[in-house]
Specification:
The chain is an alpha/beta fold. The chain has a single domain, classed as CBS-domain. The protein contains 4 helices and 8 strands, in the order E-E-H-E-E-H-E-E-H-E-E-H. The chain is elongated, with a radius of gyration of 16 Å. The protein starts with 12 loop residues before the first strand and ends with a helix.
């Protein structure tokens, strides 16, 4: 008998850091650096608007004459991120991440950000499943 595939909420990181889209980009960069995170959900009045990655910040920072203090998060975030409900199964999420090369997925419940699932979380989930389901 096979076990059911667990929901994403079992492996997501809860209470993720986030930032409002009209915040200074420098504030977002500092938040990401201070907390060692690569993906920062972007909100507008508490609702998910997009995702800002450390790669986005690095690319913008590398441009000549760019001042991170003057730019806003909305100048360089990615709108319409992949969002799922906490009950979405792990296989569905990981298939979508692999197919579209997403670095993370945002988890939303009742129009509120409740978690984030990154490719690091996917590796941890895979390891956990191998240890709990494949060992005799």
């Amino acid at each position: 008998m096979t076990k059911p595939i667990p929901p994403i909420m079992k492996y997501m990181s809860t209470v993720p850091f986030s930032i409002e889209k009209d915040s200074p980009l420098l504030e977002a960069a500092e938040l990401m650096q201070k907390n060692h995170i690569r993906h920062l959900p972007v909100l507008y009045q508490g609702k998910i608007e997009g995702i800002l990655s450390s790669t986005d910040v690095q690319l913008i920072s590398a441009l000549k004459g760019v001042n991170l203090e003057r730019l806003k998060v909305y100048d360089c975030f990615t709108a319409n991120p992949y969002i799922v409900h906490p009950e979405t199964t792990l296989d569905v999420v990981m298939d979508e991440m692999a197919e579209n090369k997403y670095g993370c997925v945002l988890i939303e419940d009742n129009d509120h950000l409740v978690g984030i699932f990154t490719w690091i979380d996917a590796l941890k989930a895979t390891k956990n499943l191998m240890e709990t389901r494949l060992r005799k």
